[in-house]
Fold:
Amino acid sequence: MDKTKKNFRINNLILCILGFIWLFPFTFVLVNSVKSGAEYNQGNFWDLPTGIAIQQSIDFISERVSLMNGFLNSLLYGVLSAAIAILLAALAAYAITKLKIKGRFFWFMLIYSGTIFPFQMYLVPVYKMYTQFNLYDTQIGMILFYSAISIPFCIFVLRNFFDGLGNEQLEAARIDGASDFHVFYKIYLPMAKAPISALFLFQFSFVWNDLLFGFTFSKSGNIRPIMTVLSQLNGPNGATTNAPAVLLACAIASIPTIFLYSVLNKNFEKGLVMTEK
Structure:
């Protein structure tokens, strides 16, 4: 018992140290984001601000980019693409693990093979296809791409989860006359609440933090996601013209993922435990 308590305290100490290591630079990002440009350039990065001066940064951001458009675009892409990918992956995972179809493992490997190659290999063929079908620089094109690229990982997680569930409830529901879709919607989908929450957080964060695909498949300010918009705050040749403004914009851009994690925290932790089994 004493050994268990000792290990528990050691683990808590390690987690506290890791949490401090992560929060320490993030705190000073927030501190420097409220400085004026002159105070930031003339002082030290670790000095506390003499006051809150964010109006200059807000004016700089509004002159250079439309942060709100990028914010709303990424919110739209993240929510819809994650939801679409999880729904399609859940249907496929249920079919592969619970329905009597031929070559179930083959279909799983065919879908999951999308993760074998580096994502950069998709840029040229998808770009050519998008320009041909008028999907380039459109919100629908961005949502379709993010949804498609998220499906293999989602189906991998949900297949493992559904495969670990017994077939007793499925057989009982079929005896009562329930259809396969009814069993999926009423029984298996509610049971997968925890891994679905974890997947939603993972995929939303992936879409929200994406820069490469946002640059490649969009060019208009009303289509580009938030990270692409933030990259435009840099000056010529990558030189930052207003560091506090960039830090403030980055701090604002981090709000949705932090909020989503706080909301899905319980389901996220439970989902990680379930998917590891």
